[in-house]
Amino acid sequence: MRALALSDRLPLLDAAAPASARETIEQCRGSPIAVSGLSKRFGARNVLRPLNIEIPARQFVAVIGRSGCGKTTLLRLIAGLETPSSGTVSVGGETVTGLQPSVRLLFQDARLLPWQSVVSNVGIARRADWRSEALAALTAVGLAERADEWPSVLSGGQRQRVALARALVSRPKVLLLDEPFGALDALTRLEMHDLLARVRSEHGFTTVLITHDVGEAVALADRVIVLRDGGVALDQPVDLPRVLRSVGDADMARLQAVILDHV
């Protein structure tokens, strides 16, 4: 049986919903991201050359490239964890000058607090009615029955599900993913791909994924950006129907080949 979606417990995405519910729904919609003349230097080293990237609301963008090309630096600049050397980043039309309440990050390490239960990790902000909202988010990722357990007894994939639930509970408008599936086995990674696609479809947040895996980028994203030497080497839309994005599909293989030529 499919796990209940977070939207099954929160106001439904329904045009006929009452005004208060529609306001909550709008809080879940994605925000556009604009990168304008953005560069970043660490000492004498230019990590990012001036970049100009527009990401519409709700779009899923995968950023790939070799180690040291600036992928994670770009993500940290969007998140407000780094300050640009020049240029600007805006989220939802607002210039990023620090951490954004509408932006959430997932890392390769789930970064759960080992002394807190699963549900307490999800509801870490301790807002009003935090436990019921945390349980709803855990239900969305299929882990409601593990709510009162400790993170140490969970598998790597389950810990990443908890991290995703922790991001969902705040109804983000932008979700930033820094290789969150890189340490998972192949089957668990595919399960996480399906889960991410489902919750993103339900909640509509804008998504930026950093990955080394071209197959993962093409399978998940609406668009793939290749960074090379701190600049954009390729900005490639992924026009394949999602149902056809499977291993062995000829069109998917051709698109991966195009992308690999620019990495």
| Average pLDDT rating | 85
**Beta-strand percent range:** 15-25%
Radius of gyration: 18 Å
CATH architecture verdict = 3-Layer(aba) Sandwich
H/E series, N to C? Answer: HHEEEHEEEHHHEHEHEEH
Q: Please count the beta strands (DSSP E, at least 2 residues each).
A: 10
How many distinct domains? 1
Helix-and-strand structural type: alpha/beta
- Describe the largest sheet: 6 strands, mixed
Briefly note the CATH topology name.
Answer: Rossmann fold
Portion of residues within helices? 25-40%
Which superfamily, in CATH terms, is the homologous superfamily? P-loop containing nucleotide triphosphate hydrolases
Instruction: Give the strand line-up of the largest sheet.
Output: 6-7-8-3-9-10
Shape: globular
> N-to-C terminal Cα separation, in Å?
41 Å
Determine and state the CATH class. Answer: Alpha Beta
Number of helices: 9
The low-confidence parts are 1-26
Quick structural gist:
The protein is α/β, with parallel strands linked by helices. The chain is built from nine helices and ten strands. The protein has a single domain, classed as Rossmann fold, CATH 3.40.50.
